[in-house]
Design brief:
Layout: E1 10-16, H1 24-31, H2 34-37, E2 40-46, H3 50-58, E3 64-65, H4 70-77, E4 112-115, H5 121-131, E5 142-145
Parallel strand pairs: 1-2, 1-3, 4-5
Length: 155
């Protein structure tokens, strides 16, 4: 691929779970031409789940990912080749988002909560958030694994 002046750009594909605001720095850098100034073009590729993104990295489908570190940590602890090389968020980038009928955390008692992973970060953080309000699985709520399609729909 070439830039607007005909110079060759190096293309890198980055694995992500789903398009989200956390990737805004990449989108802005591309839009403002900062990546092109460095001879780069970036393609974000969504895999719909943390496990899917980790597997894509492990299997060599993408050379790098931006996402939660748990899959890479588990891989490394199991003798695998994945390693964390950097980070840019020093706290969990998670917000609890609910339908309008839920006006407080207490209203979530008995709810089914969707998460992209039942084994990695999001589910554990939701457990901690709910526990802070006196609720625990499975008595008070249930986490369900969901996959997000390329169109942004839950499956």
């Amino acid at each position: 691929m070439d830039d607007r002046y005909g110079a060759s750009l190096y293309e890198i594909e980055i694995g992500i779970v789903v398009p989200a605001v956390i990737y805004a720095p990449v989108w802005l850098a591309e839009q403002r031409g900062f990546l092109g100034d460095e001879g780069l073009t970036v393609r974000l590729r969504s895999f719909g789940s943390t496990e899917g993104t980790t597997a894509a990295l492990r299997d060599g489908i993408v050379p790098v990912t931006i996402g939660s570190p748990e899959g890479s940590i588990l891989n490394a602890l199991g003798g695998g080749d994945l390693r964390l090389v950097s980070g840019f968020v020093n706290r969990p980038p998670l917000s609890m988002i609910a339908q309008p009928r839920y006006r407080s955390m207490a209203d979530l008692r008995g709810a089914k909560l969707g998460t992209t992973s039942l084994k990695e970060g999001t589910c554990h953080l939701m457990d901690k958030m709910m526990a802070a309000h006196g609720m625990h699985q499975p008595a008070d709520f249930h986490c369900r694994g969901i996959r997000i399609s390329q169109s942004g729909r839950c499956r």
